[in-house]
Inverse folding.
């Protein structure tokens, strides 16, 4: 039996493939490579010494998804595939709704037809909107401030409806906080196209000289140093969270009273300036930055209460800030142009 990984060539997907293969699971990957490179999967094979089948297909192509389910012996799915850039989603809402929501509908429809009802879905801390307090618990009110966030919220609701209509579905929603870092080998990592939107890839590109300086968006937040605070989590910890979620679903004692939802975060917040300082230490270089106005839609502070994942999945993040920075840096240094260097 195999686990289908949608979006498996992407940043979090490729790291999850490694952790699953290392634990002896069989996997099959579908990805249209709209935001990734096939080289990431070649490197997953190199790191693990294991082989698996890859289908370069779009989730929106129902016939292609059907064909995969006919050919492969799939018993569960981890669903990463989706578009994820907040700013782009404001400019191209239809693309985001179409890709993320229709892609999920096609997937679930084909799963249902083939009696595959085990699903782990990539959600995001963005579904908490502007939380009134931190740390954020799973039962906090949900809202979205942009089309990307709304796709996550809508998909969560669609999956709840699916479970309510048919209790044979076993569904886990994982709400990620801020994934950073890379595999220790320095062979796979985050490879954003164009100028990065996210803090860590921006910093590492400043350090290698691809970008001049970091824009620090806002130094007047109500935080210890005035800059935004986030819960950065090592991508390998995150990948291990998926292994735990899939093992929970497949466990004999699995019982649920609804869709299961877990925050995957460390429970610790670091500011933008904390991150700059940590990277300077790791790289042994000063990192140039300039304060700029707040970025629209940003919140001051966001970090998780990860205790539910600890109690129910037996999962905690074990990698600290320095390891996150070291691993991000090794990936960037070894691959200054991402997978294009290969
Ligand atoms: P990513 O862009 O690296 O990976 C997503 C993958 O999905 C890409 O390889 C892309 O080519 C593929 N894809 C997109 N649409 C597809 C389609 N219609 N058919 C087939 N493949 C398709 O992103 P990531 O950072 O690895 O994120 C994975 C998931 O986690 C996404 O759903 C994202 O929204 C979610 N998430 C990411 C973050 C983050 O900060 N990275 C935070 C919270 C949630
Ligand atoms: N920041 C800068 N300069 C930059 C980029 C970011 O100062 O060039 C700051 C932001 O203002 C924020 C912090 O760094 O305070 C982190 O910003 P990111 O863009 O790295 O991450 P976000 O917290 O804004 O959002 C990320 C993902 C979302 C996801 C969310 C989950 O991009 O998709 O984490 O918490 F929903």
């Amino acid at each position: 039996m195999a686990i289908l990984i949608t979006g498996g060539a992407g940043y979090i997907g490729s790291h999850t493939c490694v952790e699953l293969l290392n634990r002896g699971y069989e996997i099959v990957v579908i990805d249209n490579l709209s935001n990734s490179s096939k080289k990431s999967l070649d490197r997953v094979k190199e790191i693990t010494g294991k082989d698996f089948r890859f289908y370069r297909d779009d989730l929106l192509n129902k016939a292609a998804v059907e064909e995969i389910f006919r050919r492969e012996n799939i018993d569960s799915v981890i669903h990463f595939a989706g578009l994820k850039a907040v700013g782009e989603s404001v400019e191209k809402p239809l693309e985001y709704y179409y890709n993320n929501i229709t892609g999920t509908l096609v997937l679930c429809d084909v799963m249902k037809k083939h009696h595959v009802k085990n699903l782990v879905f990539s959600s995001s801390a963005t579904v908490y909107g502007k939380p009134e307090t931190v740390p954020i618990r799973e039962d906090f009110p949900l809202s979205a401030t942009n089309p990307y966030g709304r796709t996550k919220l809508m998909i969560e609701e669609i999956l709840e409806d699916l479970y309510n209509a048919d209790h044979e579905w076993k569904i886990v929603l994982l709400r990620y906080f801020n994934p950073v870092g890379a595999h220790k080998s320095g062979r796979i990592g985050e490879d954003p196209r164009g100028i990065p939107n996210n803090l860590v890839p921006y910093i590492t590109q400043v350090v290698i000289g691809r970008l001049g300086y970091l824009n620090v968006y806002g130094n007047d937040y109500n935080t210890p140093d005035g800059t935004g605070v986030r819960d950065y989590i090592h991508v390998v910890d995150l990948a291990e969270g998926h292994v735990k979620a899939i093992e929970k679903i497949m466990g004999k004692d699995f019982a649920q009273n609804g869709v299961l939802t877990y925050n995957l975060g460390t429970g610790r917040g670091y500011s933008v300036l904390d991150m700059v300082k940590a990277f300077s230490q790791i790289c042994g270089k000063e990192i140039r930055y300039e304060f700029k106005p707040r970025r629209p839609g940003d919140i001051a502070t966001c970090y998780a209460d990860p205790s539910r994942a600890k109690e129910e999945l037996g999962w905690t993040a074990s990698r600290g800030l320095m390891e996150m920075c070291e691993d991000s840096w090794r990936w960037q240094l070894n691959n200054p142009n991402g997978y294009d260097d290969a």
User: Anything to note?
Assistant: The chain has eleven helices and 14 strands.
